[in-house]
Amino acid sequence: MPWWWPRSSLWCSATGTIRPNCADAVERVHAIGVDAAACVRCGRCVGVCPSAIFVQERPGGAVSLHGAERCIACGHCAAACPTGAVSHEAFPTERLRPLDRAALPSPEALEQLLAARRSMRCFTRQEVPDELLRRIVAAADRAPTASNARALAYVVVTDRAVLRRVVEFTLGVFARLVRLLSAAPVRWLVRPLAPGIYRYVSVFERMRREWETEGTDRILRGATALLAIHAPTGSRFGAEDANLACQNASLMAEALGVGQVYAGFVLTAARQHPGRLERLLGLAPDRRVRALLALGMPAFRYPRSIDRTPAEVRRI
User: Fold this and answer.
1) Which of 158, 270, 302, 303 has the fewest Cβ atoms within 10 Å of its own Cβ atom?
2) The domain boundary residue, chosen from 70, 95, 120
3) Full domain range(s) for residue 265
4) Tens digit of pLDDT for each residue in 26-56?
5) How far apart are CA 301 and CA 312, in angstroms?
């Protein structure tokens, strides 16, 4: 226990990970403490810790720390403590902020936002202001990640030349796919087994033709920004984490008046040729793009929402 730590406190260290600038994870020892004088023994830290580090033998009993090396630095303990008795080196006081729950949107307001969010494919040529892009990325980074891995990182593309190369990369992949599917032996073998694939052949041909003859962008739809969310190649939940983050970004974009559409065609092309899109975006070989959101200032705002056909829901 360091000399400066209060003697009435419980102290131990935990090994966590930090990933600055997408570098390889480096080990770091975090100090975790419980100030016995401030602790009211409510047991919140015990209940919320996913690693079961906080232990309370009986309700109202003293809280102790065990197996702190399992800490994933999620911050639940520090966020839940009503008196600030929990100290965690990864979450110093200046990073802890009181929540004003009265300022949160009502359920009805949230439902309106969810209903208002729709894919936008009509953008102006106006750039998305940097401050709005910053807030969209910040919202994405608020999303939860499996085991609090926090391994996601982001590329925001606003360079029109790079956006154009992304479109051309995607169309090039589709053109090669069309040639493959149109070859007689492949067509004879694949079409009876997967007829749905062939409905895209004419779609890809038209997109390529319109791009080359008219400059019409059916991939990014003329968006002036592209948010690429990437994860380590070995991440088991990289795609899930990235798409949770993407939904956060999408909702924030809607709230800010920024149009957005999921760039599924680009993601499909990237999956066909792992590493090529990542090189285009200047990423390291051990990173993979797992979600893409095209962003731009909308030509209009949707004046109506549409009720969806109710989904099948079973209760068991």
Assistant:
1) 303
2) 95
3) 105-303
4) 344 578 999 999 999 999 999 999 999 999 9
5) 30
77 with 147, same domain: the answer is no
Number of domains in the chain: 2
Do 85 and 150 belong to one domain? Answer: no
How confident is the model at residue 5, as a pLDDT? Answer: 35
Query: Which one is predicted more confidently, 95 or 190?
Result: 95
Among 125, 129, 153, smallest CA distance to 141 is for 153
Give the residue-averaged pLDDT of 118-142: 98
pLDDT tens digit sequence for 64-84: 999 889 999 999 999 999 999
Spatial CB neighbours of 70, under 8 Å, sequence gap ≥ 6: 14, 51, 52, 53
Contact 302, 116 (CB under 8 A): yes
For the purposes of burial, counting CB atoms within 10 Å of the CB of 299, is it exposed (0-12), middle (13-18) or buried (19 or more)? Answer: middle
32 and 161 belong to one structural domain: no
Residue 316 included in any domain:
no
Say if 49 falls within a structural domain: yes
Give 205-215 pLDDT, tens digit per residue: 999 999 999 99
- The two tokens of residue 178 are 């069309």
Q: How long a stretch of residues is the chain?
A: 316
- Answer whether 40's CB lies under 8 Å from 83's CB: yes
